[in-house]
TrEMBL record:
InterPro entries linked to this entry: GntR_C, TF_FadR/GntR_C, Tscrpt_reg_HTH_GntR, WH-like_DNA-bd_sf, WH_DNA-bd_sf
UniProt GO MF annotations: DNA binding; DNA-binding transcription factor activity
Protein name per the record: HTH-type transcriptional regulator McbR
Top-level taxon of the source organism: Bacteria
Keywords for the protein's UniProt record, in alphabetical order: DNA-binding, Transcription, Transcription regulation
Organism for this UniProt entry: Roseovarius gaetbuli
Amino acid sequence: MKPQPTDAYSLILEAIDVGIFKPGDRLVESDLADRFGVSRTPIREALQRLETQSMLTRDGRSLIVSSLDYNQLAELYVVRAELEGLAASLAARHASVEEVRVLRDMVEDDRALLGKPSELARANRRFHKQIHLSSHNRFLVQQLDLVHRSMALLATTSLAAEGRDEDALKEHDAIVTAIEARDGEAASEALRAHISKAFVTRLKLDSGEVKSTV
């Protein structure tokens, strides 16, 4: 089971990440202190930190969860594809046998989550994080953490699009297969293709061309 965050910053960030707080939601110190059972001082410090990281935006005297415009979304996916492609390539070269086994088990276990977009989205984040760690490059992992923090500002998961969950798992399978074969180029290409397809799905969701199941 994933350990629960205990500091105010992590608590709020986790709530944004899992969709408890969505883009446009107003965050109030007193409400957050009551919700998480902590004093207002660490809440205030956490909100200030999240504002400096552009996770929160000031609306008058209030702080609201930020949202990404079209250009920001496109820029984010470009950077994500490049960095994740590099992570997959490095993982193919440097991941231990045990790390590769964990990735394979994740793909197999996630089949049970088909049709459950919220749960699959959390599993998807764990899968990508495992690839990042398996790259064994701390600076790349730090940059990817920043990218995925910004991904939390997306109100819905692309995995909620009809049929996307099955396709995404097939793409995960292809990524792991390349990593198992120690083929860095194939792993990078598979992961870049995966991100590209997710972006296309995101655009179709936002335009209303495809419907969300949640």
